[in-house]
Amino acid sequence: MASARQLPVNMSLLRLQDKHIVKAIWEGNERVICPRRHAIWIANHVNELDARIMNILSAAGFTHILKASNMEIKHQLVTALVERWRVETHTFHLPLGESTITLEDIALQLWLPIEGHAVTGISSGPLTCFCQQLLGDVPPENSVKGNKIKLSWLNNTFRQLPHDATYQVIEQYARAYMLMIIGSIMMPDTSASMVHLMYLPLLADLQNVSQYSWASVVLSCLYRALDHGTRTDQDNIGGCMILLQCWAWERITCISPQLLQVTEEDISSGSVFPLAKRWCRTT
Prior knowledge:
The protein is mainly alpha-helical. It has helices spanning 21-26, 41-44, 51-60, 63-67, 75-83, 103-110, 129-135, 151-157, 167-186, 214-229, 241-251, 264-269, 275-278, and strands at residues 34-35, 85-86, 91-94, 97-99, 144-145, 148-150, 194-196, 236-237. One of its GO terms (biological process) is meristem maintenance.
């Protein structure tokens, strides 16, 4: 057990200390928290995706995070950060002071839009009724739980866009891909196997998808995931772990891996910005 000298001088603000994982660690019960991720087909075949789909994803601002989706997440790094996260302040308590992830970090790391409409809407009711209209298909009952659908159904149903697809079908595939990106990369929950249909109506007009503040909702979901991760009964964590890891490497340079040298060709091709792409190029 840690000595009293390792505790904060003033514990009055840390009112949730008894429920925090560090209390269990100080008593000798350590853990390694496991980020949950779902292997989606499009993440492993980004360079093979149909150009018609990629154009829509690019206009919506979803391609950058998709291209960084295969980054290996370091479980020990995530565990160390969660242990230093405080629910009371939504900051990491580090030896040199407090720090946290901001909207600016999301803009630099993932290039998701900050300004725009709030990502909010219908979250209850029979949301599966939107599937036929916006996806062109309805998931079977065994792929639906409440208002969530299995990512595996999306993964298997919308894999290869037909060559003779109409523009309506192209849009349906693009919405399915966006749902997979949202549910498995941007805002995965601790199951990492389902995505909520509340996001589907927001994708109805693909011209307006980029007008939403996706950065804000990704940040709030990450904060919530870190809050839950500090509980002693949690052994996995949701949220955008790519953002968390890239932020740590960018801001805490003593723990960051060595990067490959950046050339003029890399800069002109856009392979090193946003910064998450650069952190995919480590030695």
